[in-house]
Amino acid sequence: MGIVWSKKSTYLAVAVLGTVLLMVSLFFALQKPVTVEVDGKVVKARVLFTGTVKDVLEKKGIALEEKDKVEPDLNTVVTKNMKIVVTRAFKVFVTADGERKEVITTPVTVKKAVELAGVKLGEKDIVKTIPTQYTVPGQEIEVIRVTEKEVEVQEPIPFKVERTFDNTLEKGLTRTVSPGKKGLALNTVRITYHNGQEVKREVIKSKVLVPPQNKVIALGNITSVSRGSLRLDFREARYMKASAYTYTGNRTATGKVPEVGMVAVDPSVIPLGTRLYIEGYGYAVAADTGGAIKGNTLDIFMETREQCLKWGRRTVKVYILN
Predict the structure, then answer these.
(1) Superfamily of domain covering 148-218
(2) Which residues, in sequence order, are bridge partners of residue 155?
(3) Cβ atoms of residues 243 and 313 within 8 Å
(4) Superfamily of domain 225-321
(5) Under CATH, what is the fold of the domain 7-87?
(6) What angle do CA 81, 40, 43 make, to 5 degrees?
(7) Is 143 exposed, middle or buried (0-12, 13-18, 19+ CB in 10 A)?
(8) Cα–Cα distance measured from residue 56 to residue 31, given in angstroms and rounded to the nearest whole number
(9) CA atoms of 208 and 116, how far apart (whole Å)
């Protein structure tokens, strides 16, 4: 037996169904879409018009720590397409005055992080950390205390060297006309300390107490001299330490048998083959070298051991001939 609907029943069923559909439509219409940015993710949600930011976070299971930051505020009533941003707090470390402090904060400026650590910055203190606009997790921040002190110190003033020419002195030789004398200054010195350790000194004021006296050196200027009946034309003259040697059974560095008139030299000072005139010895040629002959030294050849012993070691004037 089939069910027979009366016209009245049909109208009633349609009315009920319409009401249900209207209620469902109203329910979805009254929900507002929102997004939550948290932990690097974007979470989408829908909430009734009476919901708050706190309701959205609880619905999505997003737990907050004490110093996490939420924008807008938790008690704010949500609006359509609202964007909620959760910024997690993290640890940064501030070291100052020998103490390392832990600060839990959301991203802030370095100066603010130092303030949160309860550290007061002096006018010249230096903050040392990585170059960031805002703090990052685990960031180390060091406060360097800068202090300064001014002291007065007496310090010597070095003298300068003046040079002049002496037409009575051989080229290559010098003569001290005036030995020179240091002066004395009273300097005001600013000393800078970082955490109690001296890092810099700078003179900020100076007063001359005793002026320095310059040293004056005369440079030889002549390149020709007479020695008895001899006339020596030379490039330069110099004083050298001279010792003597005799036959050893070995040839010279130039491959020759040693003989009177040959000398051993340091070839970096006097090249081999250079013609010389040595006061007290005579004409000579740089023809040999020796392990002990370094710098302004030379070893002259003599015929006998007795002559070498008599010569000994002496300072001689050596003319390097043209």
Answers:
(1) Resuscitation-promoting factor rpfb. (2.20.230.10)
(2) 185
(3) yes
(4) RlpA-like domain (2.40.40.10)
(5) Ubiquitin-like (UB roll) (3.10.20)
(6) 35
(7) buried
(8) 12
(9) 51
Q: What is the pLDDT of residues 88-130, one digit of tens each?
A: 999 999 999 999 999 999 999 999 999 999 999 999 999 999 9
Could you tell me the two tokens for 202? 């700078």
Residues near 20 by Cβ (< 8 Å), separated by ≥ 6?
A: none
Provide the pLDDT for residue 1. Answer: 44
Give the pLDDT confidence of 180-220 residue by residue, as tens digits. Answer: 999 999 999 999 999 999 999 999 999 999 999 999 999 99
- What is the distance between the alpha carbons of residues 35 and 113, in angstroms, rounded to a whole number? 30
Residues 178 and 107: their CA atoms lie apart, in Å, by 70
Q: How far is Cα 252 from Cα 297, in angstroms, rounded to an integer?
A: 17
Q: Which two tokens stand for residue 85?
A: 């941003």
DSSP string, 104-130: EESS--HHHHHHHTTPPPPTT-EEE--
CB 206, CB 190: distance < 8 Å: no
Residues in contact with 59: Cβ distance below 8 Å, sequence separation at least 6, in sequence order: 45, 47
Look at strands 314-321 and 275-278 and give their pairing. antiparallel
pLDDT single digits (tens) 283-292: 999 999 988 8
User: What is the distance between the alpha carbons of residues 313 and 304, in angstroms, rounded to a whole number?
Assistant: 16
Are 265 and 272 spatial neighbours (Cβ–Cβ below 8 Å)? yes
Lookup: tokens for 242: 């001279």
In single-letter form, the type of residue at position 136 comes to V
